Amino acid sequence: MARLEESVVDGSRAPGKASPKDLPSVDRLLREPVVAQLVAEHGHSCVAQQVRLLVDDLRSRVLQGTLEASEVGAEALSAAVQQRVAGRLAPRMRNVLNLTGTVIHTNLGRALLADEALAHLLKMMSGPNNLEYDLATGGRGDRDSIVEELLTTLTGAEAATIVNNNAAAVLLTIAALARDREVIVSRGELVEIGGAFRMPDVMASAGANMVEVGTTNRTHPHDYERAINDRTALLMKVHTSNYAVQGFTSAVSEAELSAIAHARGLPVATDLGSGALVDLAAWGLPREPMPQEMLAAGCDVVTFSGDKLLGGPQAGLIVGSRASIGKIRKYPMKRALRMSKLPLAALEATLMIYLRSDRVAQDLPTLRLLTRPESDIRRLAQALFPAVAEAVGPRFSVSVEGMQGQIGSGSLPVERLASAGLAIAPVAKKGAGRALDELATALRRLPVPVIGRISEDRLLLDLRCLEDSALFAAQLPALRQALS
Ligand SMILES: *Cc1c(COP(=O)(O)O)cnc(C)c1O
């Protein structure tokens, strides 16, 4: 560093490089017309901060001898400030196109909200609302009551309560019903889902002692019966949402487990994870257990997510008997896990859609995408094929192909959705891996990033979730430029 500084000072600077005396002052830069315009738009402090950061950066580069003389011209400097301000003010959360083939993709925000949910959310958030205010009495209300009747109507439960997400619903249920006591669960159901949610750890966090029974593949009624003692507080079933135990297997059904528990005065809780409110088999999709079935089988509490198959906002829904839900609702931890008014508004409007059950597959984006016919998706792929082939140029070959998508978010882990899309493969075998990375990167850098998946040396764009094909097509010239 010291030597570099000396070399600048003694004038042995490489030709074309800027010298320290070329550096602008912060004040001078702020007076440049383009920058002054930015100040008028965004305020002094935001723009001045970016100007200061730019000048710091230029100073350190001039000392390293890497700053070009052309970079310190008024026009170049103004453009640099403009770029920094735009970068600083660009939201980090952005829309992307999910062409992964996974419909409910946790990393891409899970379920898409229905138009009605968005409209209700916007309306409720643009002014005060009766979140916790009882309009009939003028007294304090309870936010649960906004959706409780909808949830009990749709699931047949006696009562319902809501929290921030399903992980919170499970944690709260266990803590409220079994803190400092024992919870019996089958070894075949000790799930780990993404984001460090592992059933044994959740039990420990809730302060319950987990008692594992049975084996990985087989658990029998007598396994539960033998484990019950006077410290037992709860029998628990967990839907194995992201894996399947197949072959020589046996599990105790919710109905059998409820009979065992109720004969001893104990409750049963079932964590469904996804939990569909409608029978997906009606659209030829694989069946997912429904909360209403679990309640009908005798379960006292059923927990499920708002943003998986339900197709709503992030939420943890807890439905069940009046006695169990009453304990859960009164448990102090509930306050820390409570749902915000934003998702609550979206949840209410989403549940309303289920009241008009004939229209759910049109009105709920998640179901609309899941039930989209393969032939439609293939037609879309064929229509986009020529433009995509042109955009990726001669280095890649493109083909329209059948693909295997999935529901995602731990629903029906082994089932595949017959889908279609575009497969893009590097033409040259040599450097194919690098070419694929370059392609995936170029797609991610588009104004609306396109997220595909790489499989067997090809980049697959599964088009099941592409509804705005014009938006995708409009970006192809930019893709072409990035790859040329
Ligand atoms: C997804 C899932 C959860 C967690 O739900 P979140 O809404 O993500 O908090 C819990 N249990 C099971 C079985 C799940 O599949």
UniProtKB/TrEMBL annotation:
Reaction it catalyzes: L-seryl-tRNA(Sec) + selenophosphate + H(+) = L-selenocysteinyl-tRNA(Sec) + phosphate
UniProt subcellular location: Cytoplasm
Annotated protein name in UniProt: L-seryl-tRNA(Sec) selenium transferase
Domain of life: Bacteria
Required cofactor(s): pyridoxal 5'-phosphate
Enzyme Commission no: 2.9.1.1
GO molecular function, one term: L-seryl-tRNA(Sec) selenium transferase activity
Database matches in InterPro entries: PyrdxlP-dep_Trfase (IPR015424), PyrdxlP-dep_Trfase_major (IPR015421), SelA-like (IPR018319), SelA_trans (IPR004534), SelA_trans_N_dom (IPR025862)
Pfam families, sorted: Se-cys_synth_N, SelA
